[in-house]
Amino acid sequence: MKTGARNSISGKVISIKEGDIMSLVKFEVAVPHEMASVLTTESVKDMGLKVGDQAKLVVKAIHVLPIKD
Length: 69
Hints:
This protein is mainly beta. Helix content is 10%, strand content 55%. It has 1 helix and 5 strands, in the order βββαββ. Strand 4 (54-60) and strand 5 form a beta hairpin. The N and C termini lie close together (9 Å).
């Protein structure tokens, strides 16, 4: 998948806190130690994100967008 963002970091999902509408997904990365992304719970389920999954974190402006291959 190609994106317009220039910054991409690999990370491992370490926790998912699901709400009715939004979810907080935390990732373990090399530097800095940890990053987080807030996205819709529907997106978390559509991507099939689970603790332990590997994902790329694409950083653009203030957003951290997880991409699961």
